[in-house]
Here is the input.
Amino acid sequence: MDAPDAPKKPDSPPTPAASQPLPFGLEDEIDLIEYLVTIFRNKHWIMLFAILCATAAYGMAKTMPDRYEASVQLALRQPDDPGGISPDNRRAPEALTLMEHSFVLRTANENYRHIVMAKMRSRTFGIDFIQHHDLLPHLFAEHWDDEHQQWIEGFTPDIDLAFKIFSEQVRSLAHNPENDLLRLYIRWHDPRIAAEWANDYVQAFNDYMREQAIAESRRKRAFLLEQLKDTRVVEVEKSLYRMIEAETALEVLARARDNYVLQVLDAAVPPDHKFSPSVKRLALLGLFGGFGLGIAVAIGSVLVRKIRKAMAAYRAKSTDG
Here is the structure.
């Protein structure tokens, strides 16, 4: 009688790929001790390299031109109602009708602040400011002969490039959500010029927005006068006259206010200290950057040595085979 079959032994689980030794002498686990020992052995070279990087950063900071930052703190003024007439009090004889309300009032949009900031950053106003304040010789100083007041070798400045330089390197605008105030920054090599440009920029923008409001009022009045010639209805004539009066009041208010859109809370003054370059900051960045790069090179030398060892093992195995 045949013996009963012996119980089969369960198959041993396959060895995980992670526990299998790497070929050609490469170790499976990272030996941190070896890296630390390598860093410790080369600590003098690492520190020397870090000091050299800090010295190079210090020298680079000394050769860079100084830049100063002047700023103006601003408050945004909301549009006023024309002539003090309340559009909600329509029972009074001087009240505006619905048509007059929508035609005359400069109602502030919910994103009015964003619109004003976008216009301050706009290409149209930026180029207008550059041209009217003669900023091109400053923005392209390397091509300008200050003694003879002319461009060198017939150089023709590119206004688009000038606006790009001005918007990216000179002017910046920030909004503080805590107090809803704006701050305009101007960065330039001369602190006096930086403060002058900052104050002039705010004044020029107020004039720019005022001229737009006046031009809009004139267009509306011209349209209303044309409509007045074609109507014979007394009530319509009264309404048209009230709208003409309101538009005239808006123009008068625009001309009378110096700070039409932006109210200056703190005017720019020439800064005493430069904004950039920060010699200490660049030197510290060079020191820590050189230190980190030196450690990376030391760790990389260990990896290179292991790769070379693996390649040597591979060549030896190929020769034996």
Q: What stands out?
A: The radius of gyration is 37 Å. The first strand starts at residue 68 and ends at 76. The chain has a mean pLDDT of 78.
